[in-house]
TrEMBL record:
This is RRM domain-containing protein. The chain holds residues 89 to 276 of 276 of the full protein. Residues 101-188 are annotated as: Disordered. One of its GO terms (molecular function) is RNA binding. The keyword Plastid does not apply.
Length: 188
DNA sequence: GTTGAGCGTT
C-alpha cells in the first residue's frame, strides 16, 4: 500500500495543492495590489506576481499568488474562483508550475520571434557566438561601471533597425497623470 | 482601455 507521499505534479485539470495559486482570466488592468488586497484576507501572502509581457510590459492576464500556508491557499482558491474583478471572471487554481523559469544568464529571454517575412538567412542567433559566458561580462569598460544597459554589442537578435531610434519630436504631453486605474466614472 | 486562452521573468 502507499504509505509514503509520492510527489505527483498533478495535471492542469487536477492540480495538487500547494502554496502557489494561479489566477487566470484577469483583466489587464488588475494590479498586484488589488490581488494582494483580496487574497490576503485568507491568510498571509508571501508574494503576488502578475505575469507581465516581456515586450509590452503589461499584464498578460494572469498571475501567481504565493501563500505562506497551503491551507490558506486552498481556502482562497475555493472562495475566489469565479469571482469578478474589474469585470472579468477569474479562475483560481493551484499552480502546476511552482516557480518561474530559472533565470538562466547567457540565454536571451525572448520568444523565438521572427521578424516577419523577408528576413532571410538572418533569423535566430546569427552567430551570437558568445552565447555562453564569453560575451557576458565583456561589456564593462573603465567608464561607468554600471553594466545594466544593453548598450555595446550584445548578441541580441533584436536589431531590426539600424537607423537608430526615431527622434522624439515633441515636447508635448509627457505621460499624462492618468491616475492608477480609475475604474469607472459614474456618469449621472 | 482590444477583444482572452492563458502556468511564469526578473
Amino acid at each position: 500500500p502507499m504509505s509514503s507521499r509520492r510527489r505527483h505534479h498533478g495535471s492542469r485539470e487536477n492540480p495538487v495543492a500547494n502554496k502557489c495559486l494561479g489566477i487566470f482570466g484577469l483583466s489587464l488592468y488588475t494590479t498586484e495590489r488589488q490581488l494582494h488586497h483580496l487574497f490576503s484576507k485568507y491568510g498571509p501572502l508571501a508574494k503576488v506576481q502578475v505575469v507581465l509581457d516581456a515586450k509590452t510590459g503589461r499584464s498578460r492576464g494572469f498571475s501567481f499568488i504565493y501563500f505562506e500556508h497551503t491551507e490558506d491557499a486552498a481556502e482562497a482558491k475555493e472562495q475566489c474562483t469565479g469571482m469578478e474583478i474589474d469585470g472579468r471572471r477569474i479562475r483560481v487554481d493551484f499552480s502546476i508550475t511552482e516557480r518561474a523559469h530559472t533565470p538562466t544568464p547567457g540565454i536571451y529571454m525572448g520568444r523565438p520571434t521572427y521578424s516577419g517575412s523577408g528576413r532571410r538567412g538572418g533569423g535566430g542567433y546569427g552567430g551570437g557566438g558568445g552565447g555562453g559566458s564569453s560575451g557576458s561580462s565583456s561589456s564593462r569598460h573603465g567608464g561607468g561601471g554600471y553594466s545594466g544597459g544593453r548598450r555595446g554589442r550584445s548578441p541580441s537578435p533584436y536589431h531590426r533597425n539600424d537607423r537608430g531610434p526615431p527622434p522624439r519630436r515633441s515636447y508635448s504631453h509627457r505621460s499624462r497623470s492618468k491616475s492608477y486605474s480609475p475604474r469607472r466614472y459614474s456618469r449621472y
